[in-house]
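Thread: Newbie trying to understand structure tokens

Hi all, I'm a second-year student working on a class project, and my supervisor (Dr. K.) asked me to get a predicted structure for one chain before our next meeting. I've only ever worked with sequences, so writing a 3D structure as a token string is new to me. If someone could post the tokens and maybe explain what I'm looking at, I'd be very grateful. Here's the chain:
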Amino acid sequence: MGQLTPKLFVLAGEPSGDALGAALAKGLRKQAPGVTFDGVAGPLMQAEGVPSLFPMDELSVMGLAEVLPKYLDLRKRLHQTAQRVIDTQPDALITIDSPDFSLRLAKLVKVAKPRIKTIHYVAPSVWAWRPKRAQKMAKVIDHVLALLPFEPPYMEAAGMTCDFVGHPIVAQDQAGVEDVRAFRSAHGIGDRKLLLVLPGSRKSEVTRLAPVFGEALAQVAAAQPDIAMVLPAAGPVAPLVRELTSTWAAKPIILDPSSPEAALEKRAAFTAADVALAASGTVSLELAAADTPMVIAYTFNWLTNRMMERMALIDTVTLVNLISETRVIPEFLLDNCQPGPIAARLLDVMEKPGEQRNAAKLTMERLGRGGEPPGDRAAQSVLAALR
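---
Reply by user tm_fold:
Sure, no problem. This is what the structure looks like when written as tokens:
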């Protein structure tokens, strides 16, 4: 491989991976102008010059019930992709998240062409559960690009090289003062306290959490009758959210995800809010980036709750707590996901948000805010791994 002419096959399997891949491709074109791409790409990666062997959304399947009917199609795409990589022999295969498909692809390529470097973008959360995944991954992956600063030692201990390249949240635009003012005015909120409601983006979690969230919000509204509430519904579950919230005593303003202004409205809601009640997940980083204090809540069914209790390796699941090395974000998980305690903590956090705001600032600094863009850092890591 020439210093500035790497030949790369880049695969993403879902929209979040497409965004990471687009920033990576942009960084690579900047730092290695002779780079050439092949791959499986969404619209953002394609805009940065990565062609797609087939439509990326064929791989965007989640959950056993959804995967089973498409198993044969996915298997066909897996072998088609592997053969393309084997035939074209790039300097590296870069797989982005989507570990089920990505690691099977890397295994097929490694068996046929061990010389091809395999790079995986987004480390598995072995620090939280199933730690043996790292050892399994190390059999087929050479180098890992990690989003979180504490992940490289886990990957390196398993036998892979790994660089922390920064989290994409630090590069996302945030709403400004005028955006917030316009949002509050448009929805008749004015100067009232605002509670942001985030019950998740999957049907199963919204269905499980809606009764708990609804009762908790009713208790908050009873204590603070003037409070406003807003819920930015995720596209796939918007009709379900409208149905489930119709019986809530405290009814939030539901933001329409199909609106042309949906992305701007969501950003403004995050920044405008005084506190958020959110399902557990990476949304905690979005809230920290917007400097919005939060309470996290989540539960599964009874059997899964028991399994999660046995499998958990850490005392907190909230990334802000982990990255800031604090425990200031309240969590109500599994059997503790109960309306009364959740409502009480929401009222507490609204009154005393200072500790959370300090932790949010530290989290963003540790994720790379103020430094080089994550896409550029990822590109540097890829090029260094190929030398």
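A couple of things are worth pointing out once you decode it. The radius of gyration is 22 Å. The longest helix spans residues 203-223. Feel free to ask follow-ups in this thread.
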